[in-house]
Amino acid sequence: MQFSIKRSLFVKNLNDVQRAISSKTTIPILTGLKLVLTEAGLMLTGSDADISIEAFISAADEKNELEVGSTGSIVLPARFFGEIVKKLPEETLTLEVKDNFQTELRSGPAAFTINGLDANNYPNLPVIDTDKQVVLDAAVLKQLIAQTVIAVSNQESRPILTGIHLVLADAELLAVATDSHRLSQRKIKLDIDPAIHYDVIIPGKSLVELSRTLGDDVETVEMRIAENQVLFVAGTTSFYSRLLEGNYPETSRLIPTSSSTQVEFNAPELLAAIERASLLSHESHNNVVKLALDPTTSQVTIYGNSPDVGNVEESLNGQNLAGENLEISFNPDYMKDALRSFGQTEIRVAFTSALRPFTLVPSEDADHFVQLITPVRTF
């Protein structure tokens, strides 16, 4: 096996594939990067058994500057190989596999020899055959992931909550995540066959890594789902993830359909105020911020308190405040995550009572995105 290639482009593909490679794996060969060279081009593969990423570099594309000397395959230690490639001096890189899987890397005056492994011992990736592929806008998919993954649980004691629940029905994609303290739900209308139906749970960590591989040059992503795997194809990159097994909790009944107090805020302004209040609340053992709403005087006030440091009180610019008087306490970190997911927009916050979950929705498009937060009991 022997080839030369444009190093900067090779590094870009290498970075994508290395996201799937972990140094902590029970299968030693998975700490390596698999390279398979054919006349058509070079395939890079990385996997940790939960997620797998393939990147294909075509020999037909002149900008890749890929010249195939002899075909073959090899598995190289990913961490060392990656560090070496990034530090090579010239723009062109030449790789040649010699006897006993010894691999020589050359670039200008620099030459490295590293020990490889037989690629035949590398586990095969799953084959996902389906004619029900779904094409998604890459920017919308990245936004959906960012808006929902914040509510994914980090507790392995309930593994099903470490994933995002995706339901595709009637040409609408519903994504839901909850850690039982907060919930995020996003809906997207799709231009696809309404008969296509999916109901799967994808690990949140997998979707975060997928989002990182979707560069600004990627316009669409194709999603294919099999029995226990999902495949996302973006250009020349293929991203595989296992699916979580089990039934996701019924979350639709958690979202209140009525409210007793409503108010509208500019999301960045409210975020800034909560960040200020949480400067002190973080010093307290319970990390709680309190919001007081008085529709009779149109007053909205936020409080943060730490017995050791002091307290903060700030009047907020709430619009269209209506309903009953209310004082409610909540975790400011949950609130900050939720507000960041809205970006630069106006939001409507609806409260039911001091001890019931409250919702945040965009003022313009309330039906397609909702964040729910459970308050904190302070008495």
TrEMBL record:
<feature type="domain" description="DNA polymerase III beta sliding clamp C-terminal">
    <location>
        <begin position="253"/>
        <end position="377"/>
    </location>
</feature>
<keyword id="KW-0808">Transferase</keyword>
<dbReference type="InterPro" id="IPR022635">
    <property type="entry name" value="DNA_polIII_beta_C"/>
</dbReference>
<keyword id="KW-0238">DNA-binding</keyword>
<comment type="function">
    <text>Confers DNA tethering and processivity to DNA polymerases and other proteins. Acts as a clamp, forming a ring around DNA (a reaction catalyzed by the clamp-loading complex) which diffuses in an ATP-independent manner freely and bidirectionally along dsDNA. Initially characterized for its ability to contact the catalytic subunit of DNA polymerase III (Pol III), a complex, multichain enzyme responsible for most of the replicative synthesis in bacteria; Pol III exhibits 3'-5' exonuclease proofreading activity.</text>
</comment>
<dbReference type="GO" id="GO:0003887">
    <property type="term" value="F:DNA-directed DNA polymerase activity"/>
</dbReference>
<keyword id="KW-0963">Cytoplasm</keyword>
<comment type="subunit">
    <text>Forms a ring-shaped head-to-tail homodimer around DNA.</text>
</comment>
<dbReference type="Pfam" id="PF00712">
    <property type="entry name" value="DNA_pol3_beta"/>
</dbReference>
<dbReference type="InterPro" id="IPR001001">
    <property type="entry name" value="DNA_polIII_beta"/>
</dbReference>
<dbReference type="InterPro" id="IPR022634">
    <property type="entry name" value="DNA_polIII_beta_N"/>
</dbReference>
<keyword id="KW-0239">DNA-directed DNA polymerase</keyword>
<feature type="domain" description="DNA polymerase III beta sliding clamp N-terminal">
    <location>
        <begin position="1"/>
        <end position="126"/>
    </location>
</feature>
<keyword id="KW-0235">DNA replication</keyword>
<protein>
    <recommendedName>
        <fullName>Beta sliding clamp</fullName>
    </recommendedName>
</protein>
<keyword id="KW-0548">Nucleotidyltransferase</keyword>
<dbReference type="Pfam" id="PF02767">
    <property type="entry name" value="DNA_pol3_beta_2"/>
</dbReference>
<dbReference type="InterPro" id="IPR022637">
    <property type="entry name" value="DNA_polIII_beta_cen"/>
</dbReference>
<feature type="domain" description="DNA polymerase III beta sliding clamp central">
    <location>
        <begin position="136"/>
        <end position="250"/>
    </location>
</feature>
<comment type="similarity">
    <text>Belongs to the beta sliding clamp family.</text>
</comment>
<dbReference type="InterPro" id="IPR046938">
    <property type="entry name" value="DNA_clamp_sf"/>
</dbReference>
<dbReference type="Pfam" id="PF02768">
    <property type="entry name" value="DNA_pol3_beta_3"/>
</dbReference>
